[in-house]
Hints:
This protein is mainly α. Helix content is 36%, strand content 5%. It has one domain (20-143): Lysozyme, CATH 1.10.530.10. Helix 2 crosses helix 3.
Amino acid sequence: xxxxxxxxxxxxxxxxxxxxLLSRCxxxxxxxxxxxxxxxxxxxxxxxxxxxYASKFNTTAEHKEEDGSTSYGIFQIxxxxxxxxxxxxxxxxxxxxxxxxxxxxxxxxxxxxxxxxKEKEGLGYWYGWKENCQxxxxxxxxxxxxxx
Length: 148
């Protein structure tokens, strides 16, 4: 009985451990390597700040929106406009299944975020960035000690 309960507990821990929280510096390095520093005029600090306020650096983040759509991954890319989750009609402008944006491989998420930022709103598309990062004088802290 104890062995069965222990195995059940271990399997639950393994499943719940699937959520991948990246560190601030891991995110900064990945975004830098993927060419986001200066992309469309936005500094790397802005991109790191955005991902923190969008998902707290959680690559598997998922948030149900009031309109019935869902936002996914580190950038919280929305199913109504940018990806398909096969539940409701989507424009799927990034041509991906929404779960593609919940991977520790951020390349598809970054590819879509680049497309989103090219829209007329830029990073202003993301409410978290507008409220917490835009016009902030403390953006340098997002890269503090990440080069060490």
